[in-house]
Amino acid sequence: MILSMTGYGRGEAIAGGISCTVEVRSVNSRFLEVVARLPRTLAQRENDLKELVRTQVSRGKVSVSVTLQRDQNGLPLSINTSAAKSYYKLLNQLRKAVNIREQVKLEHLLKFSEVLEAEEAKESDEEEWAVVQSGLRKALDALNAMRAQEGGEMAKDLKGRVEWMERALGEIEEKAKQRIPEERKRLEERVQLLVSDKAVIDQNRLELEMILLADKLDVTEECVRYRSHTKFFLEALGKKEPVGRTLSFLIQEMNREANTIGSKSNDAAIAHLVVRLKEELEKIREQLQNIE
């Protein structure tokens, strides 16, 4: 089952008076990029969070937002009295220097982050991180469920396009086979118009030219390779591991075979089918940009 790189997941966890909400969003990207927004008390856990995300997501740009709440009695904050006094003194000096009558208030002091500081308690950090991990795993499960659902719909569409291409290849082969006797007849007529005396025509050389012409018009080898690529493409859609890069490579190879078929087949009907093939390949390529 292929996975889309676009999705959203939300997880919540509560333990020991700590509640956590984790939101995970992912969009398409060539590589895995994890951007985390953590509370200041868990800033040192950013790498641990990214490693946990990597166990569930292998490609895409993933944004993780973590919100923590504690019971009123369990807030991991303390007042930095010395910092509060120093700021109060500085603000008063500033007020007098610029001749401002307004008094220094508590709201002015709270604008300085050093006044209220987080308690650096190892036990508190471990408790918070345990709750965040639980919420993050739930969010990642929800994210992957959405990605799998969208990936399933994309897989159905891709299979339908590949099946159409298989039918188009069959039409191209039939038309290419019909072209060989038609081109043989056309070449003989042109030679007869150019040479009035039929005795001058070297039948062996004419047959050799016919063989070379048939070889140039024959697209069997290209169709066989094309079908081989579509076979591997369909097999990859059913694999559990990420296959986005593999599918992109196979599409490139299919496009190359389509170009060769178009250049070898000097026929309007075949050229029209080749154009439609390339249109389908481009649509598939655009979809693959959102597959993990």
Outline: elongated
Tally of DSSP β-strands: 6
Helix content estimate:
55-70%
Q: What is the rounded Rg?
A: 35 Å
| Tally of separate helices | 8
For the terminal residues, how far apart are their CA atoms?
11 Å
Question: For the largest beta sheet, what order do the strands appear in spatially?
Answer: 1-2-4-3
Q: Report the structural category.
A: alpha+beta
* Average pLDDT score: 84
Biggest beta sheet attributes: 4 strands, mixed
SS strand fraction:
5-15%
The oligomeric status of these chains comes to single chain
Order of helices and strands: EEEHEEHHEHHHHH
The low-confidence runs, each spanning 5 or more residues with pLDDT under 50, are: none
Q: What does this protein structure show overall?
A:
There is one protein chain. By secondary structure, this protein is an alpha+beta fold. 61% of the residues lie in helices and 14% in strands. Strands 1-2-4-3 form a 4-stranded mixed beta sheet. Strands 5-6 form a two-stranded antiparallel sheet. Helix 1 (46-54) links the parallel strand 3 and strand 4 (60-70). Helix 4 runs antiparallel to helix 8 (268-288), helix 6 runs antiparallel to helix 7 (244-264) and helix 7 packs antiparallel against helix 8 (268-288). The longest helix is centred in the middle third of the chain and has 73 residues, at 122-194. The protein starts with 6 loop residues before the first strand and ends with a helix.
List keywords for this structure.
alpha+beta, two-stranded antiparallel sheet, four-stranded mixed β-sheet, elongated, 61% helix, 8 helices, 292 residues, single chain
